[in-house]
Amino acid sequence: MDVEGIFAFLISLALASGKFEVVKGSEFKNAPGNGVTGAFWFTALKPLAEDSGLAATSMRFVLTMRIYMPAVSEPSDDIDPQMIAAASAMLAAITGGFTLGGLVRNVDLLGEFGDPLEALPGWLTFGQAKLRTVDITIPMILNNVYDQAA
Known about the structure:
This protein has 150 residues and is of the alpha+beta class. It has one domain: STM4215-like (2-Layer Sandwich), CATH 3.30.2000. The protein is built from two helices and six strands. The protein has helices at 3-16, 79-96, and strands at residues 22-24, 37-47, 56-70, 106-107, 118-126, 129-147. Strands 1, 2, 3, 4, 5 and 6 form a six-stranded mixed β-sheet that branches.
């Protein structure tokens, strides 16, 4: 399981979209700056009984990408369209890169093994900053991650 490669691939997809000023492979410790920013982090890793054999265990590996934009951005009518454009660019890139360059068997786009690829909007107060957010759930299926032995 090439975790570093998966993070690097997703970060490069985000940056290549041209929709983000900054993208990190971890949650922000302070409120992000102006403009649209993004961060990825680990959400879940669990075995897939229905997709594993007697010799190896396949896994469902889930990352979250959070997209941020200051709620005080002007014009305020542009906040949601910019957030939707950034989220849509990521969904398109992830869907088009179905195997993330061969790093995963596939992205679980339609939720065959749990929640699907999805983007959910929200708000976050970070210190004194109020932010508009979109959380993208990125579920990935990895074949034969762990060997089984008697």
